[in-house]
Amino acid sequence: MKVSLLRKILPDFLRVPAVIFLRKTGISTWFQNKLYAREAAVLKSDFRSTLPPDSASKMKVLIVCAHFNHTEFLPGCVSSILSQTHTNWHLLIADDNSTDPDTTSILLDQSNRDPRIECIKLNENTGAYTARNTGVYASQNIDWTHVTFIDPDDVAHPNWLQHSLDVLAGREGSIRPYIRRYDIALKKPLQAYFGHCPTLHSRFAWERAGGFLSLRRSGDSELTLRLSHLSKDGLTVNVKSFDESIMCRHIPGSATHQDLTSRKLMLEKRDDELKGMNISEMKITTPTITTFKNCS
Fold first, then answer.
1. 3-state class of 269 per DSSP?
2. CATH class of residue range 25-279
3. Is the pTM of this model over 0.85?
4. In this structure, are residues 294 and 120 in contact, taking their beta carbons and an 8 Å threshold?
């Protein structure tokens, strides 16, 4: 989230198209893969575990999955959660009013796989970030210590949660996972990077941020940006993991690949706004949620 050198020396009408071109042609991705792999290797070599033995088992992780019309992938995502080496978790699937007629029955099937799985169906389509806010709100009766998120078309490595908790080491804050994007069949590895969506937050870090802004795109990137500003007072940390934690599908036409120019400019504008705010002003005091019904 650092301001690039290009931003300082080139006007937006030249800089943004150049950045997008480098990304679409794969040139910047190739360099980023090398840089991120090196950063992960350095983090791994420098890591020394300070988490007391068995303390992670007492940490309950709330996992919220905002789902919309991905019933073909959802069972695989849930299976990867069931395979986690850290077993103290609660999975809340928040269906964003999918149009797939099989959705309700598939949600029921998933909730029946394990008592730690719960499903809700939103009464209107609101977008992933409002769905995630609603999922956290719907889990008020769960005594969770950490919260994270996963997309329904993603597959988590078994040690995702355990590794994140180990690296966070009991500190208040957030940890961005090292993830890799694959083709739609999860066979061909593509880009590796430090993700935004499956960032794991301590409860204190999450509550001081307040939740996601009501956006249709880049809400997780905005939250990462806001958390980096919030951590400047020293009460929370922002760190990164180093083992690959999530396999993400590259799905043509998904929101990840749309409106790149406007999204980049929005995040840069948001960064400038946050620089002028006090810490207390950065919290989303009334995160947008919507009505829902239980599908478990």
1. helix
2. alpha beta
3. yes
4. yes
Q: What letter would DSSP give residue 186? A: S
Where do the structural domains in the chain lie, given as residue ranges?
25-279
Tens of pLDDT, residue by residue over 263-287, are 888 999 999 999 999 999 999 999 9
Q: Which long-range contacts (CB under 8 A, 24 or more apart) does 103-107 make?
A: 103/69, 103/71, 104/295, 106/71, 106/74, 106/75, 107/67, 107/295, 107/296
DSSP letter for each residue of 9-75: HS-HHHHHHHHHHHHHTTHHHHHHHHHHHHHHHHHHHH----SPTTSGGGPPEEEEEEESS-TTTHH
Distance CA 42, CA 32 (A): 15
- b/e 217-246 (16+ beta carbons within 10 angstroms → b): bbbbbbbbbbbbbbbeeeebbbebbbbbbb
